[in-house]
Amino acid sequence: MIIIKNATLLNMLTDKQVCDIKIEKGIIKDIGVFDVSEFKNFKIIDAEYNLVTPGIIESHCHIGLHEEGVGEIGNDTNEKTNPVKPELRGIDSIKSQDIAFEEALDAGITTVITGPGAANIIGGTFCVLKTFGNNTLDMCMIDEVAIKMALGENPKNTYGNQKKSPATRMANVAILRENLFKAKIYYDKKQRYNFAVSQGDNSIKEPDFNMAMESLSRVFNNFPVKIHAHKQDDIITALKIIEEFKLNATIEHCTEGHFIADILVKKNQRCIIGPNMTRKSKNETKNRTFNIGKVLYDAGVEFSIMTDHPVVPIQHALTQAGIFVAHGMKSEDVLRCLTINAAKSVGIDNRIGSIEPGKDADIVIWSGDPFHYMTKTLTILIEGKIVKLNGEIIAEKRRGAYEFN
Fold first, then answer.
1. Tens digit of pLDDT for each residue in 50-87?
2. CATH for 56-351?
3. What is the pLDDT of residues 109-146, one digit of tens each?
4. Among 116, 134, 295, 316, which has the highest number of CB atoms less than 10 A from its own CB?
């Protein structure tokens, strides 16, 4: 058991409170003010009234797929041989020794949602990893959590430059819709077959296995979708696709979302904005602005914030997020974008994203304001294991973590 004493807690659900946190078997057990004389076999961590928050969640990045410091040989982010590859899994490209994981951890990021890039119209699935561990067996929380789709320049340029389709936005959308229709036919056939089997009816033939359709058809059973779209026209197209096929989707980047915030609210559309702390590298990002945060928040749009690592190095996630504070958002609201909203974006808020009983004990104690460039992470716990203590990351990865159950 671990007791964090004297925490100035921001649990992401209520206002700040000074309290203690009890952790047992990797889970947050209780929050209150405890008389430690009642307990046996426990460790105390004195937060000394410093701010305590849930671990930061990176909601969209390519960490582990695009390895830091090794050049192009470490880049397994995009399979540029076919614009439709739903059967690909980001987890199968993860390089767990990527130094970016330790840099993310040191910055207070305890969970990353990482996966394929946007070269393909349908690029494969994202996974959820904790940032501390020796390999993906240690680190992986969910093998497949969402499927990536992309509109706009990336797929049309990737394949147009190869003299292949898609070379226009029309072809992007036509290919996406065609494959969603195929996936729905596949899904319906499987549903009919499974129902017949459950009723003892052997008259219906099982559909031939198709790995691509097997993966893609999950979207018709509420499997999350991430749709890459920057320009407002592409965002509108994404909204049409979401509505037509009844997808459980977030719009990734949503760079011009501030122009159509009223539509996003009307459609109750969740977004993941960013990366913003980088240059305006193409036509799609020429209207990028940090004002988007306040505009969307004031309008009532639920969103989280991404680094898109390595576009913005993941260790600068809090620096980037702090600029949204400088442009009018409240710091507590930006922290929610980096925690509970990020968890909600792929439906994992039942385990992480806030500090409350029953959730993973992924907790950070900060030396000051998380958005100040001089602030450090003092102590970090992941699933109740102390992985950083007194400013030092535990060197031996998960096997060397301090655990008190």
1. 999 999 999 999 999 999 999 999 999 999 999 999 99
2. 3.20.20.140
3. 999 999 999 999 999 999 999 999 999 999 999 999 99
4. 116
| Amino acid in the structure at residue 377 | T
Ramachandran area for residue 268 (φ above 0: left; ψ -120 to 50: alpha; else beta): left
Distance CA 230, CA 80 (A): 20
**Residue 108: left if φ>0, alpha if ψ -120 to 50, beta else—which one?**
left
Cα 20 from Cα 34, distance rounded (Å): 7
User: What stretches of 333-376 adopt beta strand conformation (E)?
Assistant: 363-366
* Structure tokens given for 403: 């655990």
Q: Is 350 exposed, middle or buried (0-12, 13-18, 19+ CB in 10 A)?
A: exposed
**Those residues with Cβ within 8 angstroms of residue 44's Cβ, 6 or more apart along the chain or in another chain:** 2, 3, 4, 5, 36
Instruction: Extract the tokens encoding 33.
Output: 């003010």
Cβ neighbours of 33 (radius 10 Å): 10
SS3 at position 395: coil
143 phi, psi to nearest 5 deg: -65, -45
Q: Structural domain boundaries of the chain?
A: 1-54+353-405, 56-351
Mark 261-275 as b/e (b = at least 16 C-beta within 10 Å).
bebbeebebbbbbbb
Helix (H) or strand (E) holding 113: strand 109-114
Structure tokens at 405: 């159950």
Choose among 204, 266, 256, 200: nearest CA to 230.
256
Contact in structure between 362 and 377 (CB atoms under 8 Å): no
CA 381, CA 96: separation in Å to the nearest integer?
A: 19
